[in-house]
Amino acid sequence: MSIAEILDQNSNNSSALRARHFELAEKYQRACELWKEAGEKNIQNGLQLEARNSFDRALALISRLPDNDDIKLLEIHLRNAIAIAIASTLGYANDSIKPHNEKALRLCEQLDNPPELYAVFWSIALTQVVRADHYEGLGTPKTLVEMGDKNKD
Questions:
Q1: What DSSP designation does 133 have?
Q2: Spatial distance between the Cα atoms of 102 and 55, rounded to a whole number of angstroms
Q3: What is the largest CA-CA distance in the chain?
Q4: CB neighbours of 37 closer than 8 A, spacing ≥ 6?
Q5: What are the start-end ranges of the H helices in 11-138?
Q6: What is the mean pLDDT of residues 54-79?
Q7: How confident is the model over 25-52, as pLDDT tens digits?
Q8: In terms of Cα–Cα distance, which of 126, 125, 107 is closest to 116?
Q9: Can you tell me the distance from the alpha carbon of 44 to that of 37, in angstroms, rounded to the nearest whole number?
C-alpha cells in the first residue's frame, strides 16, 4: 500500500496533503479530485488564493488523464471554480478569467450542452457586464433566458 493510499484512508488528513502524495504516486485522477476538494474547502474558508492554487494544480493534471466525458465535466467544474476564485481576488474584469470561460464553453459544446453550461454562461455574462463588453455581451443574456425557458427554470 502506498503512502497516498494510507493517507487517503483517514479523511482527517488534508485534501492537499493527500493530493500531493497521489500526484507523486502518479495516480493523477485521484490527485485531481483531491486538489479540487482542497480548493472547495479553501473557498468555504474564505481562502481564495489558496483555492485558486489548488484548482490550478488540479487543472494541470487534466492533461494526464484520459479524454472522456467525465474528465471534461471535471475540467468544466475546475475552470468555473478558477474563474470564481480569480474574480474574488482580482475582480471579474481580470483578463485571466476569459480563457477559462471560453475553454469551459467549448467543453460544454463537446458534451452537447450539459447542465453546467448555465454556470458557464452566467460567468461569461458577469465578466462581460463588468468589463463593459456591451457588443460582445448582447447575446449572452438572451442565451441565458432561452436556456431557462427551455429547461422551465
A1: -
A2: 17
A3: 57
A4: 15, 19
A5: 15-24, 28-44, 48-62, 69-90, 98-110, 116-131, 134-137
A6: 96
A7: 999 999 999 999 999 999 999 999 999 9
A8: 107
A9: 11
